[in-house]
């Protein structure tokens, strides 16, 4: 396997990354000024939120302690999918993002990307990471809020690109941000020129540099240090690249082939419903392509620092690596043994009727169970433990010591999670 190194990453500007760090934790980007990117992708939580399904706009607190809010501000719906980790997304090889791959590098719309914004995605986004950054801001249950609550949510209701100029104006009229953009971007002579494109490129510069990680024990082993792995980790490595076949999908230096597969995970949550398919189910890649062959398939995640990013699966069905590996070993048995209590879902009694209702639809459960792209291996408990030990060997030595980290304050003056 090729070693991952600095040459494998897009080169981002440090000045832009500094702006991006502040924007990443600044709630000014959200409709109701009450949530930031960092709320669901926090440094203290390995770049995720520690929940199966996120608590977005309207929630209170951070991570597993985050609550669903109260009164009129309480959440209207859980975020349908698990918050993905950010590790090594600045790599040059990254060509598709989101669990269903609805953002891809493409010339289809003349702006460099095939995305939910189609031709309305602005020109000038310098990377797929920048293109990704603009979507949570206009997602109702993530950062935008509900129609009639704020001007951003209302604009999104008209058309997706109507909200981005409003967000950009919020940012550029803050003097500190205005000065920083003028200093960092050669084509910006005054704050009035700042658009969502510069904001997204700054956030991408931060994410693309902040979450680089390639100094794990396994990297040391690749460099020739055979003592870098423990006996259990070495046995797990042999299984991973051999009998267990994990590397067939988790391939390459980032441990992902960026393809889509059905794992048959336990179903729950509101689902990522489609316009003409309001069932609380998640059809995965099919939701982006409308191709029946893509039903219930999801993007293979990278395994770098995977031990830091629980829970696991597109819906966070499993709280531990042991459970996730056991599912890969015997999906049918693991799915049968799964219980609702296994999901990390902050209490929201007004949503309880929908949280697990899809599991009562026998026909839908049969459809999901019928699509499976992994062969049962029925690994022994010792083999499962060894594979898990190897996965821990993919944790970077400096993974919890990031270059910039969480800022103590942000220019808007809003609180920092």
Looking across the biggest beta sheet, what order are the strands in?
1-2-3
Portion of residues in beta strands equals under 5%
Number of strands: 5
Shape: globular
Rounded to an integer in angstroms, the radius of gyration calculated over CA atoms is 21 Å
What is the residue-averaged pLDDT?
A: 97
Number of helices: 16
Order of helices and strands: HHEEEHHHHHHHHEHEHHHHH
**Span between N and C termini?**
39 Å
What fraction, in percent, of the residue positions are helical?
A: 25-40%
SS-based structural class?
mainly alpha
Low-confidence stretches: none
Main sheet makeup: 3 strands, antiparallel
Task: Please provide a brief summary of the model.
By secondary structure, this protein is an all-alpha fold. The protein contains 16 helices and 5 strands. Strands 1-2-3 form a 3-stranded antiparallel sheet. A two-stranded antiparallel ribbon has the order 4-5.
């Amino acid at each position: 396997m090729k070693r991952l190194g600095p040459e494998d990453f897009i080169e981002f500007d440090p000045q832009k990354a500094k702006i991006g760090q502040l924007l990443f934790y600044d709630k000014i980007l959200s409709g109701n000024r009450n949530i930031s990117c960092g709320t669901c992708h926090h440094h203290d939580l390995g770049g995720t939120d520690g929940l199966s399904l996120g608590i977005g706009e309207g929630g209170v607190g951070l991570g597993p302690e985050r609550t669903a809010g109260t009164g009129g501000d309480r959440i209207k719906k859980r975020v349908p999918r698990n918050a993905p980790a950010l590790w090594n997304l600045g790599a040059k090889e990254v060509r598709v993002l989101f669990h269903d791959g609805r953002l891809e590098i493409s010339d289809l719309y003349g702006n460099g990307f095939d995305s939910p914004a189609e031709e309305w995605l602005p020109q000038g986004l310098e990377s797929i990471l920048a293109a990704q950054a603009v979507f949570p801001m206009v997602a109702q249950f993530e950062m935008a809020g509900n129609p009639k609550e704020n001007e951003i949510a209302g604009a999104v209701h008209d058309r997706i690109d109507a909200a981005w100029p409003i967000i950009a104006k919020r940012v550029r009229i803050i003097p500190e941000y205005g000065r920083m953009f003028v200093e960092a971007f050669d084509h910006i002579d005054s704050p009035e020129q700042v658009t969502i494109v510069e904001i997204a490129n700054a956030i991408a510069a931060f994410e693309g540099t902040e979450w680089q990680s390639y100094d794990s024990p396994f990297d040391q082993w690749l460099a020739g240090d055979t003592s870098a792995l423990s006996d259990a980790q070495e046995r797990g490595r042999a299984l991973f690249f051999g009998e267990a076949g994990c590397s067939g999908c988790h391939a390459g230096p980032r441990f992902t082939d960026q393809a889509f597969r059905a794992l048959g995970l336990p179903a729950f949550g509101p689902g990522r419903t489609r316009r003409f398919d309001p069932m609380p189910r998640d059809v995965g890649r099919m939701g982006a392509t409308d191709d029946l062959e893509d039903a219930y398939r999801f993007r293979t995640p990278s395994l770098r620092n995977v031990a830091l990013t629980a829970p696991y699966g597109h819906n966070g069905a499993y709280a531990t690596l042991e459970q996730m590996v056991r599912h890969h070993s015997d999906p049918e048995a693991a799915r049968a043994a799964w219980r609702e209590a296994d999901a990390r879902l902050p209490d929201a009694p007004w949503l309880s009727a929908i949280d697990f209702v899809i599991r009562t639809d026998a026909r839908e459960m049969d459809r999901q169970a019928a699509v499976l792209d992994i062969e049962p291996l029925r690994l022994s408990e010792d083999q499962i433990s060894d594979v898990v030990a190897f996965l821990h060997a993919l944790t970077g030595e400096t993974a919890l010591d990031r270059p910039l980290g969480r800022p103590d304050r942000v220019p808007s003056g809003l609180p920092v999670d």
